[in-house]
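User: Batch of two.

Assistant: Item 1 of 2:
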Amino acid sequence: MSFLVLGLNHRTAPIEVRERIVFDAERLPRALGSLAALPGLSEALVVSTCNRTELYCVGATSAPVADWLVAESGGDAALADCLYRIEGPEAVRHLFSVAAGLDSLILGEPQILGQLKDAYRAAQKAGTTGAELNRLFQTTFAVAKRIRTETAIGASAVSVASAGIQLARRVFAGFGRHTALLVGAGEMIELTARHLHAQGIGRLIIANRSTARAERIAEGLPASVIRLDALAAHLPQADIVVSSTARPGHVIPLADVKAALEERRRRPMFMLDLAVPRDVDPAVGALEDVYLYTIDDLRQVVDENVKAREAEAAVARRLIDEDVAGFMAGLKVRDAAPLIRELRGQGEAARDAALAEARRLLAAGHPPEQVLEKLAATLTNRLLHAPSAALREAAESGDATLAEAAARLFRTGQDSS
C-alpha cells in the first residue's frame, strides 16, 4: 500500500501563504470528510500547525489531493507552487522525522509530537483512518519515543516560545520591571508564560475569549486575566506582547497599537506574533517604537539551535533509517501473508488428496513399498508443478528477480529437509 504526504511548511512557504490554509478544530472535521471523499482515497489525516499543513493519504494520487488543498485555500495559485509531494518509504521517513522534531523550525522541539497525536485522534473520530494509517501513526509514536530515549535531541529543549523570549531579551536587558501581555490560552501561550515567569517577569496579563482557560494558565503565576474584548484597554501597559490564537482576522489591529504607543509616550514595545493566521496587523511593523516579530523571524535563534543539536540529529536520522526499513519490511511480509496462506492451503490439500489415495491403495491390498513410491511421486509432481511453470516463464521473459526468488525457494526447501 502506498502512502502519500502532500503539504507545505515553514521551509517551502512564507507565513503569508501558510496562513491561508489552516485547519482549526472547528474546520477540521468537515475538511477530513471532504478529503476522504476524493475518488480512490481510502484513508486520510490532516496535520495543521503554525509551521505546516500536511495531508497524509492512502490510495490516492497527488494531483486530486493537491487540487483539493488549493481549493480549500480559496484557489490560491501561490500555494500550489509551495507544495511538496512525498510517497512510499520517503513518506514514512518524513513522518518519522516530523514526529522526532527533525523537520521543525526549532530542531528537536517536542510540541509537534503532541500536535500529531491530536491530528491522529481527530482523524480517528472522523472515521477517516483505517488499518494503514493506524499502523503508520502508532509506529510513528513509538519511533519518536525511541529517539527521545536514545538520543539527546530533546535535551535542554528549546521551543518556539523560548526562542521568542530570547529575542525579547535583545530589546529589554531584564524583565523584572516589565509587563507582558499574552493573548490566547493554548499550549504556546502556556509555555511562554512559564518562560517569562522563570526569567523574572514583573507582571503577566493573559487575555482570552474564555477566561476559565486563561485562569488555568495564570494559576501560581504573578498574572491577571482579562477578556479578549478588553485587550485594547490593557495594551498600553504591555512592554511585551505575545499572541497566539486561532482566530481569523487581526486580533490586534493597527489603530489599537498606535493608541497604545501614544499613551506609553513612545516607550518601546516588543511584539511576537506566533499565530498562523497572524494576530497582529503586519502594518504594525512599520511603527517606530514597535519591534514586531512573527514565527518566521526566529531564524537566527533557530540556526544557533541547529548547530548545537546537529550531532544528535544525525544519530536520530540513523535510527529513523533503521525504523523505516523495519516498517517497510513489515509491510512486505504482511502483503505476502495471503499468498503464503494460499500456498500452504494448496500444499495441504495436495497432501490430503495424496494421503487418501495411498490409504485406498493400501486397503485394496497393494504392496506398501509401491504405495509409498506412488505417494512420494504424486506429492512431488503436485507441489512442484506451479513453481516450476513460474520459473520457466520467468526465465523465458528474462525476469531475473522472480527466477532468483524461485531458485532461493527451492534451495531453502532442500536445506530444511
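Item 2 of 2:
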Amino acid sequence: MTAGAAAGAGQRRRVGRLERSALAGVLVREIVNFSSYWRATTFSSTVEPTIYLLAFGFGFGALVSRVNGIPYVEFVGTGTVATAVLFSSVFPAMFGTFVKREFQRTYDAILAAPVDTEELVTGEALWIATRAGTYGCVPLLVAMVFGLDPSWGMLVVPFVAFTTGLGWACFGILIASLMSSIENFNYVTSIVVTPLMLVAGTYFPIDALPGWAQVLANLNPLFHCVEIVRHAVFGFEAVDLAHLGAIVLFGLVTWRLAIRRMERRLIQ
C-alpha cells in the first residue's frame, strides 16, 4: 500500500470528525509559515485593490460624480471590498493548495498525523478567510481618507468579508484539486474570476446591464458581498438577509465539494 493510499484509508475512518485539535494544528502551521512572508502577501493583497479604487474612483469619478445618489469614489470604495476579498482568498487557495499538494508534498506530511482531509481543507479555508476578512477592510479605510464617513454598520464588514472569503477559499481549493497543471488556472481566472469581479456591482450598478446579465449577476457571490457592504455603510435593507444567505450557501456548497474532491485527489 502506498503512502497516499494508507493516508486515504486513515482519512476514510475519520471522515466527518472535525476535531478542534486537528484544526488548531493546521491553523498554527499556517500562522507560523505566514510569519515568514506576511509582508509580501499583505502588500499584494492590499495595494492592488487600492489601485483599482484610486484608478476607477478618480478616473471615472471625473466623468460620473454620483451613482445612485452616492459619490462615485465612495461607491467604488465600498464595492472594492469584494475585490480585495477575492484577490486575497481565491488566488492563495488555488496556487497555494496546488503547490503544497504537488510540489512540496506538504499534505502528505500533514495527513500522516491524526488529521483527515476534511480537517485539512477546513483549516486551510478558515485561515485564508481570516486573512481575506482583514485585507477586505483596507479599501474602506482608503475611502475614508477620501471622504467616506464612518458608520456603525462598518463593524459587520469584517464578518461579511470573512464569510465571502471562506466561500472563495473553498472554491480555490476545489479548483486546485481538479487541475492537473498549474497553467490551467489561467482558464479559471479568465473565464470565471475576472468576469465575476467585473459584474458584481463594484464599479457600476448592475441595473444598467441587460436583463439576462442582471439575472446572472444575482448568482454572483461577489455581488451579494458588494450589496451587504454598501448597505452596511449607507443603511441596511431587509434584502441583506437574502444576500447573506446566498454567501453562506455558496460557502457551504464549495466547502463540501472541495473536501470531496480533495479526498479523491489525495488518494490517487
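DSSP finds 13 helices and two strands in the chain.
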